[in-house]
Amino acid sequence: MPEQPNDISATQSCKVGAFGEVMMRLQVPGVETLAQGNELRYSFSGTGVNITSALTRLRHDGYLVSTLPATPLGEAAISHLRRLGISTSLIQRDGQHLGMYFLENGFGPRQSRVTYNDRLGSSFNTSPIHMYDEQRIAATVELMHFCGITLAMNDTVRQQMLQLAQAMQAQGKQVVFDCNFRPSLWGPDSYEFARPHYQKMLYMADIVMMNERDAMGILGMPCESEERQLQLKQLIPDVAAQYDIPVIAGTHRAILSNHMHSLQGYMYKNGSFTFSKSLTFPVHDRIGAGDAYTSGIIHGELSDWIPQQTVDFAAAAAMLAHTITGDTPLSTETEIMQAMADMYRDVDR
After folding, report:
1. What are the pLDDT digits (tens) for 207-241?
2. At what angle do helices 190-204 and 155-170 cross, to 10 degrees?
3. What is the dihedral of CA 336, 265, 27, 324, to 10 degrees?
4. Which helix (H) or strand (E) holds 178?
5. Which ranges in the chain belong to alpha helices (H)?
6. Taking 50 as the threshold, does the pLDDT of residue 3 lie above it?
7. Rounded to whole angstroms, what are the CA distances from 174 to 57, 72, 130, 182, 299?
8. How many other CB atoms sit within 10 Å of the CB of residue 254?
9. Cα distances (Å, whole numbers) of residue 267 to 198, 206, 251, 264
10. pTM for the full model?
């Protein structure tokens, strides 16, 4: 295990933000399907919620940039965000609708399933082009996270994202971009349609979350090798050089039997790759684990850790996120450090 800081409480706190939609998660209890169940449990989530909540747990100040409806549902979402420690001072109130998704937990060969409802009609995705004060937002936070899922929504949201990223860059602030490519959200010819929008964000990013499949699919980069790690080592340095990206990070996941997964994180910085060890663990709730990994990379970079410590920390954060119900990572720095030291601890008394 790499050397840890002598005093983790000395980690500098930063103001971090995320631009993204807040959604209501409606989950069928247990492993019943929607057709079987007669009750739902709700919470509020979204990539931006997950990122800012996770970084707040790591002692940063998290701000969400979003639009919520001026309705009781919007008020419930605001209350939920505040309980997570997220600042709502940059959230706008407009419109009448909140995007929702229904989650059915899988079991054995039956996969978990997510069904979206009214996402494109949500207050966030129908907000007018000049909804946000980009200069004020960029003056408030030191780092802003953007996600490829948000980029896929519509032209107005894409323009809002671009304007905010440009404002951050103009004020010398950090931009984080998570590719998080979902072909189903882009429609026919998804790669060709998405490519120029991704390229604009990559040119502005200081930290990018992606892997070799993103490079080949979204960016159309050729690769002769069929082995994933060889593809990664060939393509990621080219992406970093072409788009002048200081840090690129991501994961490789393998799905095993009996709800067991294995995960290995990587980080490319200063012309070198750093890999975490491969972690194998049981999965309770997978959604949001990628955001936990991203938050770990951001935290390590903000804390000026060496790459090995950062990637090990991020992988352990992702592992713990698989054990927590709900989308939102909730582990503290101390808990993640403990997981790095000993994956299978007895009861902590």
Report:
1. 999 999 999 999 999 998 989 889 999 999 999 99
2. 20
3. -20
4. strand 174-178
5. 47-57, 72-83, 134-140, 148-151, 155-170, 183-186, 190-204, 212-217, 228-243, 289-302, 307-321, 333-341
6. no
7. 20, 34, 22, 25, 13
8. 11
9. 20, 13, 9, 10
10. 0.91
Rounded Cα distance, 336 and 310, in Å: 12
Contact 180, 149 (CB under 8 A): yes
Separation CA 198–CA 181 (nearest Å): 10
Segment 236-269, tens digit of pLDDT? 999 999 999 999 999 988 776 767 878 899 999 9
Q: How far is CA 239 from CA 183, 234, 270, in A?
A: 20, 9, 13
What percent of the chain is modeled with pLDDT above 70? Answer: 93
**Cα–Cα distance measured from residue 208 to residue 218, given in angstroms and rounded to the nearest whole number:** 14
Directed axis angle between helix 333-341 and helix 307-321, to 10°? 100
d(CA 232, CA 268): 10
